[in-house]
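Holo model, WQD. Inputs:
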Amino acid sequence: MAYILATGGLGFIGSHTCLELLALGHEIIIVDSLINSSKETLNKINEVLEFRGISAINRILFKKGDIRDLVFLKSVFQEALVNNKKIEAVVHFAGLKSVSDSILAPINYWDVNLSGTINLLNLMDKYNCRKIIFSSSATIYKPINSKLIKENSDLNPINTYGNTKLAIEKLLYDIYKNGSTKWAIVNLRYFNPVGADRSGLIGENYNINSNNLFPILIKVANRKLDSLPVFGNDWPTKDGTCVRDYIHITDLAIAHAKALNNVLQKNKEFLNLNIGTGRGFSVLEVIKKFKEVNDCDIPFHFLPRRNGDAPFVVADNSLANTFLKWEAKKSLKEMCLDAWRWGRHKTKSSI
Ligand code: NAD
Ligand code: WQD
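Output:
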């Protein structure tokens, strides 16, 4: 079992991944500024594990801090070393992820996402920890209308958020290809992660500005919003609404565990892997399934197309199947059930 640093490990994808890594027996240091998460998630991770009959109390350490703070981040690597526990690999989730916010605050997005990553990589190099799994995104691809997206499809992000993700991938490629040290790097390009752990104890922090489909669905189901706006019904798709590759967060977490095994076994490697299900569902199909399985009402209305949307974004995930021996197992039904099990308790908070 390995000693792992998870930056942003209390966020949506980080918390579910830490849960699965702890369940497998790994030991983790979580670094998180809590800018979009809460320390309570740490207790919840332990609770879910206890429920599964696993104790992780001595295998999880939390350090509150910002990855842009070099002194703080260095102390994390140094403390591990002093305790004879060298950090073997990093799972790097920490970052900002809202497309709309990134357009409003580009400097902040470049600073957090890129400067934070450069700090991290500098310290990893200094402390001889050169294995990393990076949270990349399907947002870096150039939109194509109907074909499955492959890792070698054209890249062309159209917003600041996407630009920061692509820049980090390029930076990672440079340090893999050039320089005198060997790195093992896996960029996981997530498609549309949704749902929650089936315990309902951890999930996504739906903040007030979340404008992704599932947070809005939850808001409507919780009657915090009268009707769901569907952006466009004239797209060249099966029913005129956009098609996406929604992936259950637990499947995504398990993909990280497999990617981690992969980098732990390699000295020099660079992989870009699409992480999706390979299946696409339209907005109307998602609404229908959510209503059906949760027995709730989801009124909706059509609005014009949303700026920046593409009609069809679905992964060809055969490379991940080959390299990680991984494939997504959970259905859209489970995504809707689990998202609501988590989201229905959010009636009193912002959602
Ligand atoms: P999230 O906001 O839930 O988690 C990110 C975590 O990082 C949060 O806990 C936040 O507090 C922390 N954080 C942010 N800035 C930090 C900093 N400077 N220092 C330390 N901690 C910091 O987001 P998520 O959905 O879990 O996404 C995780 C990663 O995956 C992000 O890098 C995101 O860009 C990427 N990603 C997310 C999606 C998605 O749809 N959720 C899709 C593709 C890629
Ligand atoms: C899904 C579909 C909307 C809200 C985003 C980021 C991407 C990645 C995942 C981080 C689209 C439609 C939505 C609503 C709607 N994140 N929709 N009404 O845009 O595919 O991807 O999240 O890396 O970078 O761009 O996800 O959930 O916003 O939208 O009709 O109120 O739902 O038009 O077709 P998207 P989404």
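The chain has one domain: 3-346. The chain has a mean pLDDT of 96.
Archived with the compound record.
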